[in-house]
Design goal:
Length: 176
């Protein structure tokens, strides 16, 4: 498979992003949403991330958006402002070709360039070996599991918390 072009997302990419995420909502346990957000809601979320100075990337192959990744606030209270939570989603047909890894590595670099200091992955479902695997490959440490905090498709689901320092992490103070 040729290398995808990984670039910053624009509003024109959001129909494809909405479609990729809808499939993950309807068929997967990585996200705990139950009803796929429509294009208007995905656009509202995109604009909120842009306004907050967070990176939002897409992977494009032969003219089609095949995956995306973004970082956003981990929690809204202001002392969390140097910590981000990440998301990465690919079309199922292109899993396991190294594209999730490329998106996440680029997302980490973008967050480091913006001065963020910690990245947290809240992974839906302990059985999500793809997500746990790609985060491990990117240097995330396993923090722990919240057992049985979700309920989807008729079963209880865990969340797996993983975390990685960005840039100088906690070894220096952040720029105000
Ligand atoms: C999670 C996801 C983004 C990973 O992307 P991907 O392109 O399939 O993963 P990659 O091919 O880049 O894998 C990189 C490494 O992660 C690990 N990995 C990936 N998939 C794995 C799996 N199913 N089982 C075990 N390890 C896996 C491997 O170490 C792999 O490296 P290798 O292929 O050299 O062994 C993708 O599977 C996906 O979109 N899943 C559905 C949505 C999702 O779970 N998103 C994460 C939300 S937190």
């Amino acid at each position: 498979m040729p290398d995808p072009d990984i670039r910053h997302a624009t509003e024109a990419d959001l129909p494809a992003v909405t479609e990729i995420y809808a499939q993950a909502v309807l068929q997967g346990t990585a996200t705990f949403e139950l009803i796929p957000p429509d294009l208007a809601e995905m656009t509202r979320r995109f604009k909120a991330l842009m306004d907050g100075g967070y990176p939002y990337l897409v992977a494009e192959l032969e003219g089609s958006v095949i995956g995306y990744a973004y970082a956003g606030p981990y929690r809204p209270r202001p002392a969390y402002r140097f910590t981000v939570e990440n998301s990465v989603y690919l079309k199922p047909a292109i899993h396991r070709h190294g594209i999730g890894l490329q998106l996440l590595q680029r997302l980490i670099a973008e967050c480091e360039a913006r001065g963020f200091r910690q990245m947290i992955a809240v992974i839906g479902d302990s059985a999500n070996l793809g997500s746990i695997g790609v985060h491990t490959r990117c240097g995330f440490a396993m923090i722990g599991t919240h057992p049985n905090v979700g309920f989807k498709f008729g079963r209880w689901l865990d969340t797996v918390m993983m975390q990685r320092a960005l840039g100088e992490g906690a070894t220096t103070l952040p720029n105000p």
